[in-house]
């Protein structure tokens, strides 16, 4: 294998990527614990994004990262923040309604949306590899979601009456995240990642605060498990993002972030162990197909 196209991961880098994927999956399981015990989506997003923004802002000052924004950045960053805000609210809304693993698998279709938005906004033709992956990923998603309702025994109409809203939220999250990625790549790629993250998380927190205000205030947990969930989703998300933008660059990880797309698998195991959630074997097989396809896309040669 050529060493010039895709450098081998060190053990430390590989372990760090797995840790981030684990914490991201655990973050969503913690979120479901919070939602099942009185916390609403807007409250969860305020805590998660607000704390992350503060931590990354501290890192900016600690490392003396220069804050220089050009006109293009000033236009793009608020749009990206708005998109990620919608994505955050929609994904947590999906997690509140679906088994955690299924919500994340539906969201994991975002590479397809990224290719679509790159074509629509910038006229980029999708790579042949992406075109080949699309039907495989959609087949895996169809199996994971049990579109026919066979695994659930409810039939298609009964099954979709249960999962339809949650799936719609997850796909909306995937679509908005895909557009945010495209805009980030083309409009803000020259900015320090920590600066982008602090800006984005700050905007997301403000949007979530507006949501909290419209619903009459924060909805805090009504049981101890809910407080653990709220604390868990805040700490896990903030820690994962901090590691992502401080440790990974030092480890020289380039183009290997696709490994983190095993997040739904970690979420599936944790949701089974902690929440008692389980899905049918055919849905697990579909989920593995989706994850494998996303990883295959992410490890393509540049």
From TrEMBL:
It comes from the Bacteria. GO terms for cellular component: membrane. Residues 16-144, 166-297 form the EamA domain. It holds the Pfam family EamA. Keywords: Membrane, Transmembrane, Transmembrane helix. The chain crosses the membrane at residues 41-63, 75-95, 101-122, 134-154, 160-183, 195-213, 225-246, 258-275, 281-299. This is DMT family transporter.
């Amino acid at each position: 294998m050529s060493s010039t196209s895709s450098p081998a991961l060190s053990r430390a880098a590989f372990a760090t990527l797995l840790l981030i994927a684990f914490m991201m999956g655990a973050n969503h399981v913690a979120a479901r614990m919070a939602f099942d015990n009185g916390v609403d989506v807007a409250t969860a997003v305020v805590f998660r994004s607000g704390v992350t923004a503060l931590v990354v802002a501290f890192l900016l000052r600690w490392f003396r990262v220069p804050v220089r924004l050009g006109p293009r950045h000033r236009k793009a960053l608020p749009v990206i923040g708005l998109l990620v805000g919608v994505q955050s609210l929609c994904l947590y809304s999906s997690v509140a309604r679906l088994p955690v693993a299924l919500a994340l698998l539906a969201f994991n279709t975002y590479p397809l949306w990224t290719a679509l938005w790159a074509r629509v906004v910038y006229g980029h033709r999708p790579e042949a590899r992406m075109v080949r992956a699309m039907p495989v990923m959609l087949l895996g998603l169809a199996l994971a979601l049990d579109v026919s309702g066979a695994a659930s025994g409810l039939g298609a109409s009964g099954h979709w009456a249960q999962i339809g809203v949650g799936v719609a939220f997850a796909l909306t999250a995937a679509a908005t995240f895909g557009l945010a990625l495209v805009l980030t790549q083309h409009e803000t790629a020259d900015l320090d990642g920590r600066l982008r993250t602090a800006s984005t998380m700050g905007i997301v927190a403000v949007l979530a605060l507006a949501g909290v205000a419209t619903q009459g205030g924060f909805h805090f947990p009504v049981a101890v498990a809910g407080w653990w969930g709220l604390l868990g989703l805040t700490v896990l998300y903030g820690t994962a993002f901090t590691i992502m933008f401080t440790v990974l660059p030092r480890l020289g990880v380039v183009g290997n972030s696709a490994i983190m797309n095993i997040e739904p698998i970690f979420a599936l195991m944790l949701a089974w162990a902690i929440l008692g959630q389980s899905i049918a074997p055919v849905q697990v097989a579909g989920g593995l197909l989706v994850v494998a396809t996303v990883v295959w896309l992410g490890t393509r040669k540049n």
